[in-house]
Amino acid sequence: MISCSGFLTRSALPRAASCSPVFGVPARRQRIWSQRGLQTGKVDKKLVEKLPLAGIRVLDMTRVLAGPYCTQILGDLGAEIIKIEHPTRGDDTRSWGPPDAPYVDGVERQFPGESAYYLSVNRNKKSLGLSFNNPTGISILHELVKKCDILVENYLPGSLKKYKLDYETLSQTNPSLIYASVTGYGQTGPYSDRAGYDVMVEAEMGLMHITGERDGPPVKVGVAVTDLTTGMYTAIGVLAALYSRRDTGLGQWIDASLSDCQVAGLANIASSALVSGKKDSGRWGTAHASVVPYRAYKTNDTNIAVGGCNDKLYGILCEKIEKPEWRTDPRFITNALRVKNRDTLDRIIEDVLKTKTTKEWLDIFEGSGMPYAAVNDIQGTINHEHVLARNMIETVDHPGCGPLKLVNHPIKYSRVEPKIRTPPPMLGEHTNEVLRELLDFDETQIQDLKTQKTVA
């Protein structure tokens, strides 16, 4: 059986494929079949209706944010995610409340509920409570590796080697394994032994320096953007490795770090420094270094962002705020002059915008063609009419907490759409299922493991 991603599902793999350890069908023949199906229009409906990563299995040995965000993306796209958690503590973020979604099923547990932090990055996963500081736990993981396509971990470099869970060892067990390591500073380099924390990497790798008000101190971004960027880059790397494996049959080791991803995330700012050889222009708050007006301004009640970022749009702004004379004011007639006289222009624009509420200005700017937006808080965002219309907030039924609202997967597909298929799992919720269905453990064996506190 072939999944819609083009991969043979694990259950269909031959015991000894002659062409590779992953595929029983040469890649060239698969491509011919694919092209023939497109040409004739005869495409298996069952394949079309599968998610892109259906049939792919991931062993998730990550905690906190960057790693779980990566595996959640893979899970949203259809992969089966088996999340390995400490049998009593679980993922670190399980204790990162309040707020917690309280349990409503009447069962007393060590946590008051499921923390909002944990719920944000662990949907579409199965939880296996497993201790691997003993030979039995290690053996279970080794057996699971044989059944998986991908392993994602975020331990310090070298720390899994003592458990024989490093790439060098596991690639001998499963040559087709794609093994992704997510760390703060990578597997090499002078900082490789440092633990990785988003705020430290934001500081070290330039982001904090360019974030904040013009004359204010450096600040971190309001969400752990370096962690999230790293999670996304890692997911992209895993998908590319899967694509490569179609032809080679071999997996590979992916070295993803917060530091590298943050440097890459500097984008045009880093490019400007490389091209000019000069210092960056520092912090600009909500403003833009080379375009004026293009920032958030105070209104009578909150804030609004407007973008008069070329001569035409600047003219529209002047008309809408009933200051048409500013279009021909010699201080502001070109963008270069507007940048030169930024302080004056920003002050007089804000003076006008402060005379009405944000809602009043939104109504005035509607349909003008000029970019504008209210500066919403988080409640305003998650209840925003466009957010709701795009199905970005979905209610799921959690077995312990009842109905829960979660942020949905953001990418839409024209055929089958990624969505929240299962709520974030409770600690060890799928231990029995995974051991029984994947490793053929019987109930007595599972109970013995629980008695030994190897699993929970």
From TrEMBL:
<dbReference type="GO" id="GO:0005739">
    <property type="term" value="C:mitochondrion"/>
</dbReference>
<dbReference type="Pfam" id="PF02515">
    <property type="entry name" value="CoA_transf_3"/>
</dbReference>
<keyword id="KW-0808">Transferase</keyword>
<dbReference type="InterPro" id="IPR044855">
    <property type="entry name" value="CoA-Trfase_III_dom3_sf"/>
</dbReference>
<dbReference type="InterPro" id="IPR050483">
    <property type="entry name" value="CoA-transferase_III_domain"/>
</dbReference>
<protein>
    <submittedName>
        <fullName>CoA-transferase family III</fullName>
    </submittedName>
</protein>
<dbReference type="InterPro" id="IPR023606">
    <property type="entry name" value="CoA-Trfase_III_dom_1_sf"/>
</dbReference>
<dbReference type="GO" id="GO:0047369">
    <property type="term" value="F:succinate-hydroxymethylglutarate CoA-transferase activity"/>
</dbReference>
<comment type="similarity">
    <text>Belongs to the CoA-transferase III family.</text>
</comment>
<dbReference type="InterPro" id="IPR003673">
    <property type="entry name" value="CoA-Trfase_fam_III"/>
</dbReference>
